[in-house]
C-alpha cells in the first residue's frame, strides 16, 4: 500500500469491472456507507477512504492551509485514484465530498464517468440572489459554540443535522464520528465548508451529475439542488427523496440506498427515458 492509500485508510472491496468510489462528508468517516456497501460488492469494485482530518486519520497529517479550500481535498482524491491506477470511476460523494468530486472532475475529467452528489451545496450562506440556507451570523455563532465546548456543540448539532433525537441510532453514530475528530481540526473544516463559494465551478463541470437531495434538510434547502442542476456545465438530473436530514444514507437507509444503487447502475439518459 502506498503512502497516500495508507494515510487515507483506503480499502478496495468487491468484484466487478466498474469502480465505485465513496467519499464521506464532514464529521463522518467511511463507516457512513455501511448500509450501502452490501448492495454494491457483488457487482462493483468499491473504494472507501477517509478524508484527512476525520477521526480514523492521523491528525499530524492535517495541513490547515491545504485544507482551507476544497482544492486540497480534490487533489487528495485525484492522488488516491492515480495511485490505484483506475482509468475511470463512478464517484458518489456526500456533502463536503460531493463538491470535492465536482472540483476534482474539473481538474481531471478523465478519471470520472459520472458524479453522484448526495446532499450537495456549492455555498451555504445566503446572498442577495442565492438562497443557501444560512446567514453569516448563524455560522459565526455555531463556530463560537464549537470553540467554547465541543462536546456540548455535538450534542446540539448532531440531532439537528440528522433530523432525529439523541436516542436515534443515526444521531448516536454521527455523534461518535464527530467526537472522534480533534476539535481544532473539526472547527477548521467546518469553517472551510460553511464559508466556501463554489458556484463559479459548476459551469466548468463536464462529467454527468446525479443530484440527490432530502426533501427536508436543515443544511441544504431543496432549492440548492435545483440551482446546481441549472448551473452545471454538463448533463445532470435531480431526485428529491422523501427523507429528513443531511445524512439520509445513515438515518433512512431503507429509502435512500435503493435510490443510490439505481443512480449508480443507470446513466442519465436511461433514467430520463
Automatic annotation (TrEMBL):
Pfam families in the record: Abhydrolase_1
AB hydrolase-1 domain boundaries: 19-252
Domain of life assignment: Eukaryota
PANTHER family: ESTERASE-RELATED
Protein family according to the UniProt entry: Belongs to the AB hydrolase superfamily.
Name this polypeptide is given: Esterase kai2
Lineage: Eukaryota, Viridiplantae, Streptophyta, Embryophyta, Tracheophyta
Amino acid at each position: 500500500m502506498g503512502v497516500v492509500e495508507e494515510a487515507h485508510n483506503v480499502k478496495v472491496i468487491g468484484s466487478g469491472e466498474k469502480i465505485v468510489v465513496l467519499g464521506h462528508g464532514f464529521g463522518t468517516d467511511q463507516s457512513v456507507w455501511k448500509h450501502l456497501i452490501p448492495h454494491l460488492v457483488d457487482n462493483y469494485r468499491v473504494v472507501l477512504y477517509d478524508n484527512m482530518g476525520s477521526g480514523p486519520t492521523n491528525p499530524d497529517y492535517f495541513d490547515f492551509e491545504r485544507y482551507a479550500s476544497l482544492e486540497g481535498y480534490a487533489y487528495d482524491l485525484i492522488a488516491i485514484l492515480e495511485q490505484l491506477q483506475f482509468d475511470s470511476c463512478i464517484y458518489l460523494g456526500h456533502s463536503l465530498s460531493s463538491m470535492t468530486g465536482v472540483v476534482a472532475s474539473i481538474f481531471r475529467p478523465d478519471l470520472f464517468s459520472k458524479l453522484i452528489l448526495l446532499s450537495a451545496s456549492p455555498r451555504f450562506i445566503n446572498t442577495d440572489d442565492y438562497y443557501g440556507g444560512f446567514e453569516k451570523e448563524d455560522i459565526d455563532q455555531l463556530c463560537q459554540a464549537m470553540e467554547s465546548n465541543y462536546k456540548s456543540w455535538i450534542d446540539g448539532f448532531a440531532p439537528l443535522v440528522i433530523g432525529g433525537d439523541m436516542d436515534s441510532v443515526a444521531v448516536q453514530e454521527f455523534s461518535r464520528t464527530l467526537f472522534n475528530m480533534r476539535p481544532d481540526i473539526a472547527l477548521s473544516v467546518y469553517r472551510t465548508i460553511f464559508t466556501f463559494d463554489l458556484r463559479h465551478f459548476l459551469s466548468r463541470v463536464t462529467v454527468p451529475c446525479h443530484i440527490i437531495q432530502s426533501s427536508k434538510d436543515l443544511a441544504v434547502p431543496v432549492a440548492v439542488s435545483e440551482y446546481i442542476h441549472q448551473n452545471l456545465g454538463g448533463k445532470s438530473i435531480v431526485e428529491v427523496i422523501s427523507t429528513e436530514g443531511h445524512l439520509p444514507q445513515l438515518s433512512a437507509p431503507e429509502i435512500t440506498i435503493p435510490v443510490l444503487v439505481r443512480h449508480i447502475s443507470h446513466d442519465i439518459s436511461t433514467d430520463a427515458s
